[in-house]
Design a protein that fits this description.
Strand content of chain A: under 5%
Distance between the termini of chain B: 57 Å
Radius of gyration of chain B: 20 Å
Oligomer: heterodimer
Strand order of the largest sheet of chain B: 6-7-8-3-9-10
Helix content of chain B: 25-40%
Protein name (chain B): Phosphate ABC transporter ATP-binding protein PstB
Keywords (chain B): ATP-binding, Nucleotide-binding, Phosphate transport, Transport
Distance between the termini of chain A: 60 Å
Family (chain B): Belongs to the ABC transporter superfamily.
GO molecular function (chain B): ATP binding
Mean pLDDT of chain B: 88
């Protein structure tokens, strides 16, 4: 139904475009005064006036009609004033199920009446929608056609519409993010209603079990986030130890030393590395690296587990090398040649020039890249799900298994989850923590880049 | 015993005298950028404690020649230099020469001021540090001060040595770059259109500075401004299409040049 409406809208706008530009061309022919806008703008303007208001109205109507209809139906339900919100929504979903033909039990007469009411309301709504949209289209088309004339500033009008559209596009991502934050905070608050926030933030034990029966032996769970955060920290640290030197050194080599042919081969290869799915890295970590790390640990006489922080961290480090090297590469390449020549002309060697002039000048870009990579390491999920452990242990032994925030979120949400259980809700609190940590990292990255930007 | 003829002795003496006077000697210098030849067998000598100006229309090869004198062309991919260039009679393109040492002796100032994004102090101290010219902090302070004094910048910046060099005005930045070049005590300073990005007042200051620096350094300057060449130099060389057209005393060059092309260029008939 609304699909047909959309198609008709688009068609009408297209037709109005041609009609409008044809009329503009006709009025401009033989006109004595100078015309302001070219015919194509008159056509576009007519199309926009025809299509856009009706389209916006269609979207709003579709978004709003269900809740309005629901309210009307429930209000007409006998004795609805005395019902609470949960019962109302239960009734409403039953009415909708019956209306859709999914009948599980014989509906009561009240429900039957509501269904009839619902159906008539839906019909009215559909007819009203079509009528209003047709009217909007007709008015828009009429005005858009009528307004065409030599002095009408159609180009300005079109440009203004395009500007609004761009503004709207730039707001989409922000509004979505706000929505995500809101839902995270909402669920996390529910969690904090069951588990005190101090216990969550400062607790040293993470055992997210909840007794199914009150007298169960496994009894009390513990929701202390510190060990989980610590695991994330250990794995991220290992990955940064692997990735930062490798990435920066490779960037220096590629920009300053490598000859053109080598660079032409290696740089795209490095960037392909960034496109490898993380689950593939996960296979590599768990099947190849983890056993090797374990046997190394055993031969060194260190307590080692099959899943180690070192294996997950090292593979994650390899995964983020391209980020660091690519961003550092850009930062180094952006340092003007004049800086290099100035240094060479003073008798500096290549190494001195790189260490004392290029790296300081490129530092903001490099730090930005490193922090971006770090926030990626903190939020990385697949590799650690596959290669890191599940038990939250506070250990700095890299050969031992640790768990991370992301791993815990995944395990908490997998399987049979009830949304009134702290075990499930804990996932949202963890998500919130993770979000805050990466947000802070990104803020620091932005600030560092701005503060230490050396203008050349 | 081998007795030379008087003429031969005189000639040898002459040669010796002039070799001693010539700080740098370019013989049959040609430069190629890949397949393209940019300089054709240029023979040009640079005299000690003299300002030599290189003039000529854009693309005539004067900057290219300048950059052969401290081997800055080495950094350009596909660039090849043939012929011979000597500094104090030793070939600077000899494989045994370390280009880093050469550039410490032959400094360079560029067209656009290019101070490092560091403090004024660090800009000057950079060269002395990498060459180990100072034994301690007070030594280094002294070098920085002397260089800034020589560049006529000391009074303007002495109270803000720790502020970034990029915050100075264009003319001050260029004098900072000159001070930076002076700080490593080179013997020759090459200047590639040092005033083309500066306003007339800053230009006058830099020209005055060049004039003073002549006492201690040998200077080669590329310029597009005839007046500047006439004001600051003692010798002038005119390039055209990769060839050296004429090299002469500046006074003679601007009043009565030997070559018709020089005359035309100076009078503004082409270029």
């Amino acid at each position: 139904m609304s699909g047909y409406l959309l198609a008709i809208l688009a068609l009408a706008a297209l037709v109005m475009h041609f009609v409008g530009s044809a009329r503009a061309r006709a009025t401009q022919n033989g006109a004595s005064e100078k015309t302001h806008s070219r015919p194509i703008y008159h056509g576009l303007n007519a199309a926009i006036w025809t299509g856009v208001p009706a389209f916006i109205f269609l979207l709003l109507w579709l978004a709003g009609q269900n809740s309005v209809i629901n309210q009307l139906v429930v209000a007409s339900f006998p004795g609805s004033e005395s019902l609470d919100a949960t019962t109302r929504s239960l009734i409403m979903s039953e009415v909708r199920q019956v209306a859709a033909g999914n009948i599980f039990k014989e509906p009561t007469p009240e429900i039957q009446a509501a269904v009839t009411h619902l159906k008539s309301l839906q019909q009215i709504s559909a007819i009203a929608m079509v009528a209003v949209i047709a009217a909007l289209m007709a008015i828009g088309a009429f005005l858009g056609y009528k307004v065409i004339g030599n002095r009408f500033r159609a180009r300005h009008s079109v440009e203004r519409s395009v500007t609004y559209f761009m503004m709207f596009s730039s707001l989409v991502a922000i509004v979505t993010t706000l929505g995500i934050i809101a839902s995270l905070v909402f669920e996390a608050l529910q969690f904090f209603a069951k588990v005190p926030i101090t216990e969550f933030l400062f607790g040293l034990r993470w055992e997210p079990q909840i007794a199914i029966r009150a007298d169960q032996v496994a009894g009390q769970g513990a929701f202390g986030v510190i060990p989980v955060l610590f695991g994330t920290f250990v794995i991220s640290l290992i990955s940064m130890i692997v990735a930062v030197p490798t990435g920066i050194l490779s960037a220096i080599y590629l920009t300053e030393y490598a000859d053109k042919r080598f660079r032409a081969v290696i740089k795209p290869l490095l960037e392909i590395l960034a496109g490898v799915p993380t689950v593939v890295y996960g296979f590599f970590a768990v099947l190849t690296v983890a056993p090797a790390v374990r046997s190394l640990g055993i031969s060194l006489g260190i307590e080692s587990s099959p899943n180690s922080a070192l294996a997950a961290g090292a593979v994650m480090g390899v995964m983020i090398i391209p980020f660091i090297s690519s961003l550092s590469d850009d930062a180094l390449a952006a340092v003007p040649t004049a800086m290099r020549e100035g240094s060479f002309a003073l008798g500096a060697t290549k190494g001195e020039t790189i260490r004392k002039v290029l790296l300081p000048a490129a530092l903001p870009g490099i730090v930005g890249g490193v922090l971006l990579a770090l926030s990626r390491a903190v939020g990385e999920t697949m590799i650690v799900v596959m290669a890191a452990g599940l038990i939250a242990k506070m250990t700095v032994n890299p050969f031992d298994a640790v768990t991370t925030v992301t791993v815990q979120i995944v395990t908490l949400l997998i399987g049979d989850s009830e949304f009134d259980n702290p075990k499930t809700l804990a996932a949202f609190a963890l998500g919130l923590i993770l979000f805050i940590v990466t947000l802070i990292l990104n803020l620091i990255a932005l600030r560092t880049v701005r503060k230490y930007r050396e203008k050349y | 015993m081998n007795i030379m003829s008087e003429a031969a002795v005189e000639k040898a003496l002459d040669q010796k005298m002039s070799d001693a006077n010539f700080k740098m000697v370019g013989k049959d210098v040609s430069v190629y950028y890949g397949e393209k030849r940019a300089l054709f067998d240029v023979n040009l000598n640079v005299r000690k404690n003299t300002v030599t100006a290189l003039i000529g229309p854009s693309g005539c090869g004067k900057s290219t020649f300048l950059r052969t004198l401290n081997r800055m062309n080495d950094t350009i991919e596909g660039c090849r230099v043939t012929g011979k260039i000597t500094l104090d009679q030793s070939d600077i393109y000899d494989p045994s020469v370390d280009v880093v040492e050469l550039r410490a002796r032959v400094g360079m100032v560029f067209q656009k001021p290019n101070p490092f994004p560091k403090s004024i102090y660090e800009n000057i101290a950079y060269g002395p540090r990498i060459h180990g010219l100072s034994r301690n902090k007070s030594d280094l302070d002294q070098i920085v001060e002397n260089s800034l004094v020589k560049a006529g910048l000391w009074n303007e910046v002495k109270d803000r040595l720790l502020e970034p060099g990029t915050g100075l005005s264009g003319g001050q930045q260029q004098r900072l770059c000159i001070a930076r070049a002076v700080a490593v005590s080179p013997e020759v300073i090459l200047m590639d259109e040092p005033c083309s990005a500066l306003d007339p007042i800053a230009t006058a200051k830099v020209e005055e500075l060049i004039h003073e620096l002549r006492a201690n350094f040998t200077i080669v300057i590329v310029t597009h401004s005839m007046q500047q060449a006439a004001r600051v130099s003692q010798r002038t060389a005119m390039f055209h299409l990769g060839n050296l057209v004429e090299e002469n005393d500046t006074d003679k060059m601007f009043t009565n040049p030997d070559d018709q092309r020089t005359q035309d260029y100076i009078m503004g008939r082409f270029g």
